[in-house]
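Let's do one together. I've listed all components of the complex below, 696 residues spread over two lines.
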Amino acid sequence: MAQVIKNRVLAVLVAIGIGAGLLLAFLTLAPNRLVLGTGIPLADLLHGWRNIIAVPALMLCCGIFVRPTRLTQWAVVLAAVLLLVGFVWLAGDAAARLSQEATSLSRVSLGGGFWVLLAVTWLAATDALQRLPLATAWRIVAGVAVIAPVIALVALGELNQLSLLKEYANRQDVFHVAFLRHLEIVGATLVPTLAIGIPLGLALYRSDRYAPAVFAVLNVIQTVPSIALFGLLIAPLALLAAALPSLGALGISGIGLAPAIIALTLYSLLPIVRSTVAGLGQVPRPVIEAAAGMGLSPRQIFWKVETPIALPLLLSGVRVTTVQAIGLTVVAALIGAGGLGSIMFQGLLSSALDLVLLGVLPVVALAMAVDAVFRFLTLLLDRSQP
Amino acid sequence: MIELQHVSKAFGPVIAIDDLSLAVSQGEFIVLIGSSGSGKSTALKMMNRLVEHDSGRILFAGDEIRSFPPEDIRRRMGYAVQSIGLFPHWTVERNIATVPELLKWPETRIRARVTELLELLDLEPGVYRGRYPHQLSGGQQQRVGVARALAADPELLLMDEPFGALDPLTRVSLQQELARIHRASGKTIVLVTHDIDEALRLGTRILLLDRGRVVQDGTPMQILAQPATAFVTDFVGRSEVGIKLLGLETVAGRVRRNEFGEGPPVAESLTLREALSIFVARQVDRLAVVDGEGRPNGCLHFADLVKASE
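Okay, and this is what the predicted structure of the assembly comes out as:
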């Protein structure tokens, strides 16, 4: 019997999407920002010409049953992106309509159905792109292009009546301060991380006597939960600041920026050290020997041969570290370091779900953006590799 | 050119080189051969100070090599290793230009030299100049490796198993290329190999090493015909000595000038080993011989393979 389902991944995604569309609330309407709202299913929002969204949905369903070729995969990407944008726009449009009808305090929030459909369409687009024979550079460009229309909708104000964007409008100043603080903490972590991690990796590569011990310590640090590590640093730093008032004057104390940056640096060291050692380790021995044999000095071998060959792997270590630091910085808000985590925790404490999202979504976006930028940089450097 | 006087080298308790003496004169093609662990690579690497010798003296152009900074001496000697020694992040052009750049040659001179070398090694400069090593076949990579070693016109060329990673066909064609370059340039070459056929094909002089000592030092003919010990005979391949001897001589040396054979002629530049193969394959006992221009110049009898005619 010929197989009917030609694309199993898409079949699973569509099944999940249909289930979420039918069973879960697409939006919720609440009388104010703190109480739980009543769900509004997707079907209630589809009337009149809005039903046009069925066209890309059907296209996506067809994708399950046709043999994957270059053309059908592009069609799947197109259908998934149209559907993704369609859902986002539908949410914004419905929010605008509902808020006209209700009181000024009422809030329209995104429901579980919306998030599942968003994830499903995005995964469908990404999966189809993965199957296409694209150069890595174009893959990155396409990945950005998939989410670009959503960013455009936000920028155009089409979603302004959603609770999430209202939270943003209410806290614009606080949000901007927190966002910049977040970047500041990540940036301030990277400086000592690179300054310590790269020389340490270099030293371990040159003589591997201490490598097992150092990696064991760094591995243990990685396994300590972040909140515990932040907490552990409070007492010693508070004592230090008390003992040396000059340090306190510099802003070093048990809570705030200092312990956050120290803890984040400790976490960041492992990926950097490991990628430095691995990057240098993958420089073939004969290449180094040939370089020496032709009369390059040790310094020339390091700068002209070892560094350029190790750089792509080293950069991927910096990428992992940065993405990790962006995520961990959220937790640093608990010890008063600020950042987007402070918005998230404020939302959690007041059980305002949209405020939580206002803190979390930029973190996710930031991590993805940094990831894409570093992948692109690595690619530029890696032109000589097969 | 380069001279080793009673040189020894130990790595911890392991003696790699044991009282080695060797004088290489201008224009010689010396092959250091031996099984792994015989010290052949160590001997080569001591010549450009990649390995420092423990005792004895190594003289380069009359001076102890330790009186020069190692980088200086290395830039005066070409150095070629297996193709994986190319810099993967540099183009063919930059790879070849490595030593000229270190010597701060002017850019136009470097460019001209790269073109010249690519042509010498049968690589179309327009096509290959800008390629990266991973875009080349193994044989092409090795050609670039040889070109890189020759780039700054070194006084001495050191080659450490340069053709070890190649398939047999490519290896033979590169050996012929190297032999041609040696004849044309008169460069002094020291090459390390474990392949006896390569040694017999290339060397004007072969040093067979075992456990850091020279077992025999002689011409290919001497190694085959007058083995110093049973070890040499074993190394060469006891049952194949005769065949290998035939590989050292060409048809030209045995041809009967006053006779003419029948059938398709063979070139006088063929080795006797190849001629033997043709005799057997065609099941004949006489072959017509032609010279380089294709003019008939005699006949080779099967018996001439064993002994030259009177």
